[in-house]
Amino acid sequence: MTLRLQAITRDEHLAFVRSRPSASHMQVPSWGDVKPDWRAESLGWFDADGRLQGAGLVLLRPLPKVRRYLAYLPEGPVIDWHDPDLAERWLRPMIAHLKSRGAFTVKMGPPVVARRWSADTLKAAIADPAARRLGEVTETSREPGADKIADRLRGMGWRRTEPGGEDGFAAGQPRYVFQVPFAGRSLEEIHKGLNQQWRRNIKKADKAGVEVVRGGYDDLPAFHELYAETAERDRFIPRPLPYFQRMWTSLTAEDPDRMRLYLARHEGEVLAAATMLTVGTHVWYSYGASTSRRREVQPNNAIQWRMMTDAHALGAAVYDFRGITDTLDEDDHLVGLLRFKAGAGGEAAEYLGEWDFPVNRLLHKALQVYMTRR
């Protein structure tokens, strides 16, 4: 059965997302409002009876001086990735449509998990001096069908964007993430799944009087102050405050619970802050920030446990800590963050990664050279 692809309204797109258990927070209509430098368009795949079967948020970024665009579907589109006729029914119509819009390259991130590693496997790998990269460690489980999807993409001419840089993070969305499964588990079972250090630190924060509260738009400057401190300490480039203000305004206008802000206070001072995003039954820990002061009262564990507790109350099937580095080198400064997330007792997951389709090979090559030199 063939599918018809066309642009759809925001309302149609949002209704489709709400009809599914979940979708990436980067595949909801409001995410386009978070990215004003891109032009957003919602696409829909319809069957012969006019029913919407799939949707995707496309972000179009113009090349300077020419009317050509990079078309990007972060962590999308939301389609039937396991369809044996993936190419003809879903992806070729999308490429043709975006080519007509002036796209010279299409970039997407299939929301398909390929492999998983348990927390125990990850802990052993970090402790093993011979283990250098997570991708080289034998997985705990492999998701059926993921390899076939990758083969179909290669057969069409798609090419996977390999992670760049020494820390293993890709230029786009993370290929490796850490997730805690919630489905079918009580809060007590999730608490028992935390490692001993996490449970001890949560108790220590409570005993010290750390208070975790929900914040709002007016608390974003306090969050950003800690975030800027975190960026300097952990050596990354921080986003400006207006980005988070725009994110809050856009996402909460679409759904009041799409984005939450949490603050951990101790004796009147905010020591840690974090944002939480929700789409359906998937909850993400999005951005985190903390000060180096009074770390002994463990505000980071306290704020995460409060967020996990609230996510469970919302009916979450998974609590997603987002990106982790794939390096296992003890001397790497990012391994500490990996160890912290692994302490939550979940599992590391590898997605299929981000893939490029060069519509115009010359312009695509120019983009690759630019990204390499940037």
Automatic annotation (TrEMBL):
Keywords of this entry: Acyltransferase, Cell shape, Cell wall biogenesis/degradation, Peptidoglycan synthesis, Transferase
The protein's matches in PANTHER family, at most eight in alphabetical order, are given as: LIPID II:GLYCINE GLYCYLTRANSFERASE (PTHR36174:SF1)
Q: Which GO terms describe its molecular function?
A: aminoacyltransferase activity
> Which SUPFAM superfamilies would you find in this protein's record?
Acyl-CoA N-acyltransferases (Nat)
Q: What is the lineage of its organism?
A: Bacteria, Bacillati, Actinomycetota, Actinomycetes, Kitasatosporales
What name has this protein been given in UniProt?
A: Peptidoglycan bridge formation protein FemAB
Q: What is the similarity comment for this entry? A: Belongs to the FemABX family.
Q: Does the keyword Transferase apply?
A: yes
Q: Name one Pfam family in it.
A: FemAB
Gene Ontology biological process terms in this record = cell wall organization; peptidoglycan biosynthetic process; regulation of cell shape
